[in-house]
Design brief:
This protein has seven helices and 14 strands. It has a six-stranded mixed β-sheet with strand order 5-4-3-2-1-14. A six-stranded mixed β-sheet has the order 6-7-8-9-12-13. The chain has a two-stranded antiparallel ribbon with strand order 10-11. A hairpin with a 2-residue loop joins strand 4 and strand 5.
Length: 274
């Protein structure tokens, strides 16, 4: 089975939900004839450096403001990011998965950082969900959560075909041997290629672009095959929408056996005597 996927590397307008929703809907119209899955970056509906706007911009999962997005998912499945107001009144950096006019899944960011005040304004998530899509199982990771390798284990155990990372990664440093490319991007790509090869699944990484309060987001969104090949990539530092097909029958990852339960027990029980 082949899955058409579109990566929307956009520049959201900070705090302007109406503008950003319309931008999402325009991209839906652009790609719905060639893709079954459309992926936007982390906090794509709100922007990132919200600070005190977080509480004002937060939306519940059944917000009327999000209804046009819900209706658009009749034509194409979507993953997008926003500030979610949870039932517990917590404020979450969340990725919503819409499909067939329904909100199928919510993945909340698990590990908050000092980046643009997320520790101060957001609540950390406490669960990982595997999404059973029409074409197979997939996992969604929000932002820097991907830097914790233990996050990958539930997805590997579930036998996912695609790992999706939605991100607001900022430019830090420059690579000495790759002109104009942030060093942080080179390091991240090396990590993602390692994950793809080790666990034999596709990785789709979608990062935003633009500036907020002097902070630059570098883009560099891409799709990586289970063999570690970069199949398609967006340019750095500019908005871009790319589409490609993933052949979900070209590999099998159900023969990968990693006994995570045993590994976790060994680590937990490990002691070292000096």
């Amino acid at each position: 089975m082949k899955l058409g996927v579109s990566l929307a590397q956009i520049y959201p307008k900070l705090g302007d939900l109406e503008y950003n929703i319309e931008k999402h809907l325009e991209i839906v119209k652009e790609v719905k004839q060639r893709s079954q899955l459309l992926i936007f970056p982390e906090l794509s509906l709100t922007g990132s450096n919200l600070m005190d706007l977080v509480i004002d911009i937060a939306q519940t999962k059944d917000s009327n403001l999000l209804r046009p997005i819900l209706e658009a998912s009749t034509y194409i499945d979507m993953i997008l990011g926003l500030v979610e107001l949870g039932e517990d009144k917590g404020l979450y950096d969340s990725a919503f998965y819409y499909s067939n006019s329904s909100l199928k899944s919510i993945q909340r960011k698990l590990f908050l950082t000092s980046h643009v005040g997320s520790l101060k304004y957001f609540t950390s998530g406490d669960r990982i969900d595997v999404i059973d899509a029409r074409w197979g199982k997939l996992g969604v990771v929000v932002g820097e959560d991907i830097l914790n390798p233990l996050i990958i284990s539930p997805f590997v155990k579930a036998g996912i075909k695609i790992l999706i990372i939605v991100s607001n990664n900022i430019s830090v440093g420059y690579s000495s041997n790759k002109a104009g490319i942030p060093k942080c991007s080179v390091d991240l790509m090396n990590l993602l290629i390692t994950y793809a090869r080790l666990y034999s699944f596709y990785i789709v990484y979608v990062n935003r672009v633009g500036f907020e309060d002097g902070i630059n987001f570098f883009g560099g969104s891409c799709a990586i095959s289970p063999s570690g090949e970069i199949l398609a990539s967006c340019p750095y530092f500019e908005e871009s929408v790319i589409s490609l097909e993933l052949d979900l029958e070209t590999f099998r990852n159900d023969n990968i056996f990693i006994d995570f339960d045993k590994a976790f027990k060994l680590v937990k029980d490990f002691t070292y005597e000096y």
